């Protein structure tokens, strides 16, 4: 189980080159890892060839929104991923494999904790 406060929900990049099984940049992974959060938002909002409802996209977009202070939109992305009719195994940045719904639940919990701690 990922440790609290760890950036475990940055998805799909057990390898240094970024997204696995997606076009590079479509999940904003490299931008998120570099702390380029606005760039990640732009990549995720405009990604072609990836469904707007793809759980990996939703979770990473939620992460990017949270980092840019858009906590309401972040929570919405996480909830959409939780309630998605699609669910699949994701490889996290630390190599952990987790179901996309579980990853979204953990991301939402982490967001709620951060907001409550303010």
Brief synopsis:
The chain is built from 5 helices and 2 strands. The chain is mainly alpha-helical. The protein has a two-stranded antiparallel ribbon.
Feature tags:
Serine Threonine Protein Phosphatase 5, Tetratricopeptide repeat, mainly alpha, 5 helices, disordered N terminus, two-stranded antiparallel ribbon, globular, 118 residues
In terms of per-residue confidence, which ranges show pLDDT below 50 for 5 or more consecutive residues? 1-16
β-strand amount: 5-15%
Summarize the helix and strand pattern as letters.
Answer: HHHHEEH
According to DSSP, the number of beta strands is 2
Strand arrangement, major sheet? 1-2
Structural class: mainly alpha
| CATH-defined superfamily | Tetratricopeptide repeat domain
* Number of structural units classed as domains: 1
Shape annotation: globular
What is the CATH class?
A: Mainly Alpha
What's the total helix number?
5
Straight-line distance between termini = 25 Å
Largest sheet descriptor: 2 strands, antiparallel
Oligomer state equals single chain
CATH fold assignment: Serine Threonine Protein Phosphatase 5, Tetratricopeptide repeat
Mean pLDDT: 85
Radius of gyration: 13 Å
**Helix content, binned percent:** 40-55%
Q: What is the architecture at the second tier of CATH?
A: Alpha Horseshoe
């Amino acid at each position: 189980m990922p440790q609290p406060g760890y950036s475990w929900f940055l998805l799909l990049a057990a390898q240094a080159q970024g997204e696995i099984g997606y076009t590079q940049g479509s999940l904003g992974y490299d931008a998120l890892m570099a702390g380029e959060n606005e760039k990640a938002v732009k990549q995720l909002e405009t990604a072609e060839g990836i469904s707007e409802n793809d759980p990996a996209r939703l979770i990473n977009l939620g992460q990017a929104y949270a980092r840019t202070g858009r906590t309401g939109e972040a929570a919405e992305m996480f909830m959409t991923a939780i309630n998605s009719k699609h669910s699949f195994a994701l490889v996290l940045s630390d190599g952990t494999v987790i179901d996309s719904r579980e990853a979204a639940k953990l991301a939402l919990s982490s967001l709620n904790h951060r907001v409550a701690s303010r």
